[in-house]
Amino acid sequence: MNVSLLPCRVTALSTVLLFLQVLVAVGSINAAEARSFWQAEWEKVVKAAEEEGQVRIYASNSVGNLQVIWDAFQRRYPRIKLTGAAVGRGSDMVPKLMAERRAGKYLADVFLGAPSAIYINFYRAKILEPIPPALILPEVTDLSKWWQGKHHYVDLESQYIFMYESSLYGPQISYNTKLVKPEEITSVWDVLHPKWKGKFEAAHIGPTQGSTAIVFLYHHPQIGPKFLEKLYGEMDVTLFGDFRQATDWLAQGKFSLCLLCRRIDRAAAQGLPVAELNPYDLKEKPGIGAGSGAIGLMNRHPHANAAKVFINWYLSREGQIAFRQANTDEHRKASLREDLLLDIVPELARRRQDKEYVFINRPEWMDEKPIHALLERVIRKHK
Question: What are the residue ranges in the chain where pLDDT is below 50?
């Protein structure tokens, strides 16, 4: 060993160690500065929101038991009151909000409801503000906390309609458990067997109605328009508009199968002989979508800071837990966040690593006019 080289090696090693220490120190400073920046910004927004004293949320009651969400927010931010929160069917809430704005009353801060309703009525009217600038909390902005490592927006710009709900979708075909054996149906196409002709009821989807399930069927690469044409045109289906009556008919055995019946899980829990086909038991790919789980920030909203606080809280882990708790009777509905505890997420609502999903709420699928035109043409032809 050349002893004369030892001091040089020691000096070099010391230099490397010193350099690494500097990097660690700089990294720590940068991390601290980042924490300091968002914390300072958040504290400023919360203080200003508390001075505003209130936030106005308009919401469709299909979002869930909204009182659960309101109560959770008020526990976290008692100085920001949820005042004037308007709740009702989406078909009622949208006209109400639009009528207010036409009268020069800009009352709503945030709208919670169906992606399609927000897109068709608010996005197209250009009365939404971008959501990304309002997102402050790291647990919200951290994309690794969300499914597929990104935020899911419904609009082309990925700015205006934030989708947070993750619901498992299949063809939404329900059956009477006394009349149909689920093992008879391993593909959605099996329900078109002649033996079910005249024993099928299906929702009558009008031109002003949206349906995530119908969008799923129409655009699904393994199903498509041909399936809807055959179902509505060749199966001698009975059309319904009253969803409660449709479920009653199915439970009574008046019909064996039903397309787009609702609240089947609730009816089954009450002991009625009804069930819905499990998407995982069918050959076709299951879908991920949101029936009502989207959020929009209205422009010219009156409480700028309180709206930010609500949006950040609602999209945080705590807020999305409250959303899930507001839907305890929904066994397929959860959040697109990846960090909710499994014990609050029903098995059917858990996204599986071994499955490829069809993502339903896409900007290019928002226009449902071709679907309505198809159904209208087929129904009229076979009346």
Answer: 1-6, 8, 10, 16, 22-24, 26-29, 31
* Residue 175 and residue 89 share a domain: no
Same domain, 78 and 220: no
Q: Is 169 helix (H, G, I), strand (E, B) or coil?
A: strand
Query: What is the DSSP track for 197-241?
Result: TTSEEEE---TT---HHHHHHHH-TTS-HHHHHHHHHHS-PEEES
CA dihedral 285, 288, 290, 296 (to 10 degrees): -130
What pLDDT does 1 receive?
46
For helices 304-315 and 6-52, angle between their N-to-C axes, nearest 10 degrees = 120
- The SS3 assignment for 297 reads strand
Q: pLDDT of 240-287, one tens digit each? A: 999 999 999 999 999 999 999 988 988 999 999 999 999 999 999 999
For residues 160 and 176, state if they share a domain. no
Q: Which of 218, 208, 286, 275 is nearest to 247 (CA)?
A: 275
57 and 178 assigned to the same domain: no
Q: pLDDT tens digits, residue range 231-251?
A: 999 999 999 999 999 999 999
Name the nearest CA neighbour of 163 among 151, 171, 149: 151
User: Which residues 6+ apart lie within 8 Å of 223 measured at CB?
Assistant: 171, 188, 189, 216, 217, 284
| Cβ 114 vs Cβ 294: under 8 Å | yes
Q: Which domain holds residue 86?
A: 39-166+290-351
